[in-house]
Amino acid sequence: MRPVIDTISQSISAAIEKATGQKDASAMVTPATDAKFGDYQSNAAMGLAKQLKTNPRQLAEKIIAELEIDDICQEPEIAGAGFINLRLKSDFVAESLLKIKADKKLGIEKVKKPRTVVVDFSGPNIAKQMHVGHLRSTIIGDCICRMLELAGNKVIRQNHIGDWGTQFGVLVQHLYELSVFKKEDENLQSLEEAIDTLSIEDLEVFYREATEQYNLDDTFKKQARKRVVELHTHSEPLTLKLWEHIVDESRKNYQFIYDILGINLHKENERGESFYSEKLAGIVEDLKKLGLAEKSDGAICVFPEGFKNKEGEPLPFIIQKSDGAFLYATTDLAAIRYRINELKADKIIYVTDARQKLHFEMLFTVAKQAGWAKDTELVHITFGSVLGEDSKPLKTRSGENVKLKELLDEAVKRARGVVEEKNPDLSEDEKEKIARAVGIGAVKYADYCNNRTSDYIFSFDKMLAMDGNTAPYMQYAYARIKSIGRKGEEKGINIEKELKIVKKPYLGEDAELALAKQLIRYGEAFNCAIADFKPNFLTAYLFELAQKFSAFYNACPVLDASEDIRPTRLLLCELTAATIQHGMEDLLGIETIKRM
RNA sequence: GCGCUCGUAGCUCAGUAGGAUAGAGCGUCGGUUUCCUAAACCGAAGGUCACAGGUUCGAAUCCUGUCGGGCGUACCA
Question: Tell me, in Å, how far CA of A144 is from C1' of B35?
Fold first, then answer.
């Protein structure tokens, strides 16, 4: 189903062409800035008048004279400098409601040309727990995937886990040296059993200890490097086994977090650094052959066009260190080739924090210069940092990264407190279920509702507030609608049947019409959100919907309404619930709850 | 130094392509409950859009400069 705004835009563009002969002129249609101006406005006449050196109001008159839109809108009005104001006919709104009702996707339309889109997001580090620094990439990336999929694209999720590099040689060597393994060090079976008892917390401690030792102890350093070589060459089964165990143990941690957060990422989405490790030398060779890579200060570098350092000299993109090791630049290049050649990507999206902007600009330039990404669109989607109440990056009191598990546990705990207070009579199971949905939902929703590109201040109190643009507010709106349904059934109202008999919704009350107009704009909001991958457009839409529903709920009794208007009101409830549910669950991956 | 990015109400933030009197939430003040969940609703006050120029019929938005914050800037990712 096509969004109204698109239909209006097309009509106006056509009218402009008839009035002026200008082809493909932008209709400049936006939602009205103020309800008193109507529902939509076109700002096209002003810009066009300047271009054509005529009077904007007169031009607007001419456009209106040619405008064929009376099936949708009331008589257009010209206001101010030459705005064309449009107000939807309530008959049109009513018909659209029925179309939405018949559409599983509630008015979200598919793209004309589906593409294969690779989305690289989350990317946790192995041997460490997920922390707050991974939150945004993980949930924003997931939302982007959901939107692209709903729009009909083929989406390939790629989790570029950090599972390779010197640090794993260091960690493996440390594990070898731990007394618990020493005595069994010739016995593969026992060693596997021993490491099976290691938790991710143990690994984190070992990681820290190992790094310290690496920096202090030269013998250890030598051994650790040997382990790196063993990893690279697969020459020592025990070393490989240890590494695999480390990865498996880490996966348990992040898979647990993904499941809690409702993130659609699984083992099969993993293409970590190790996956590309054997392709790196080839990358460097190929770039050398192409004449793009050269040695500089001992390192192999590409100097991509258009990048300068502090002295105004070409800026290097280092693909091999002077000690021969490869870097994430090399891995990322290998990943680009894999995604284009093997995964057949038309577009690759990277979801990382804004600090990596320069890296990706250079990476994309190199890939283009090498001719590896001729027909592939490369996009870096950035986001800001999560800050604490002190406006500094969120850390624990001791200065460590806040673990995602602890953060989410705390959110659920606080939500549980609210449930206990508001609804003490619910069963334990139900309280827990609600607390989970509200707590986790609050964290995700708070992130989504901020502009992706800016930093935001993390606050449990704000995200769990019952008022304002929060998950609990949305979930409450949904629960109230569901409650109407239950009460209706209790009263013996056959809701299914009433919904079926609505042939022409009757939108007599302002609150009904306003809610209906919001409902038919879901597809439009979706298009705005996906255009720039901005989830806050979705939350803004959903919040406005919930507000309009609340106003309706207050002004218009549903179950006690007379039988001629009750079906329409039930329909409005039904569609509001469906839209909130679709938006929260299918787009944002946040649970709705029938009771709270 | 150079580059990127941000500066909007007391607070947290929106602001789609340059459009009308700059919006929302919180907080503050006032009101609403014999009625489907008041975790709600309605109303009010609150602004030099960091500052100064410029382009334009029109600028929070574009350009230049200044001030202030964050980030990045050759072998971490």
Answer: 43
What is the C-alpha separation between A361 and A587, in angstroms, rounded? 29
Which three-class secondary structure state does DSSP give residue A66? helix
| pLDDT per position as a tens digit, A538-572 | 999 999 999 999 999 999 999 999 999 999 999 99
Q: Which domains are delineated in chain A?
A: 4-88 (3.30.1360.70), 116-161+273-386 (3.40.50.620), 166-269 (no CATH), 404-460 (no CATH), 471-587 (1.10.730.10)
> CA at A305, C1' at B30: how many angstroms apart?
63
Q: How far is CA A2 from CA A14, A105, A431, A533, A571, in A?
A: 17, 12, 41, 20, 21
At residue A215, the 3 state secondary structure works out as helix
Q: How many angstroms separate the Cα of A59 from the Cα of each of A10, A84, A186? A: 17, 10, 88
pLDDT at position A52, please?
87
- On average, the pLDDT of chain A sits at 93
CA of A224 to C1' of B40 (A): 62
Scanning every strand, the nucleotide with its C1' closest to A528's CA turns out to be B16
Give the DSSP H/E element, type plus range, for residue A495: helix A495-501
Among the residues of A24-157, which ranges form H helices? 44-52, 56-66, 90-102, 132-150
Confidence of residue A187 (pLDDT cuts 50, 70, 90): low
Query: Whose C1' is closest to the CA of A326: which nucleotide?
Result: B75
Task: Classify the C-alpha dihedral A66-A69-A75-A78 as positive or negative.
Answer: negative
Q: Copy the structure tokens of residue A527.
A: 């298009």
**For residue range A370-387, what is the model confidence (pLDDT) as tens digits?**
999 999 999 999 999 999
Give strand B nucleotides closer than 7 A to any protein Cβ.
1-2, 4-6, 12-20, 23-27, 35-42, 56-58, 70-77
